[in-house]
Amino acid sequence: MKNLTKAFAVIALTTASFATFAATEVQMAPAGSQSIGVVSASTNGNDLSGLQGKLAAKAAQEGASSYRIVSAGGENHLYGTAEIYK
């Protein structure tokens, strides 16, 4: 039983630490932040939230604390770019 409790604690702490590394979407460049580049993503279909999720994941992968979507378009194949900040 103790091992099960420890396993749940490890999983909870790991999940919480990953959440702190997630990039958040902003509407304008955050004050005091520096632009560290641009990421792009695309998705099949017309699910804008899926594209937004892919851009957020790429921003976090690049070490960004926040990102701002600067372009998005397409019909059956969406594409977009986002400026990333740290």
Structure description:
The protein is α+β, with helices and mostly antiparallel strands. It has helices at residues 2-20, 48-61, and strands spanning 24-25, 35-44, 66-73, 77-85. Helices cover 38% and strands 34% of the residues. Strands 1-3-4-2 form a four-stranded mixed sheet, covered by helices on one side. Strand 3 and strand 4 form a beta hairpin. The longest helix is centred in the N-terminal third of the chain and has 19 residues, at 2-20. The protein is elongated. The protein starts with a helix and ends with a strand. This is DUF1471 domain-containing protein.
Short structural description:
With 86 residues, the chain is an alpha+beta fold. It is built from 2 helices and 4 strands. Strands 1-3-4-2 form a 4-stranded mixed beta sheet, covered by helices on one side.
Based on Cα principal axes, name the global outline: elongated
Question: How far apart are the first and last residues' alpha carbons, in Å?
Answer: 42 Å
Strand order of the largest sheet: 1-3-4-2
Multimeric state:
single chain
Features:
86 residues; alpha+beta; four-stranded mixed β-sheet; 2 helices; 4 strands
Could you outline the blueprint of secondary structure elements for this entry?
Elements: H1 2-20, E1 24-25, E2 35-44, H2 48-61, E3 66-73, E4 77-85
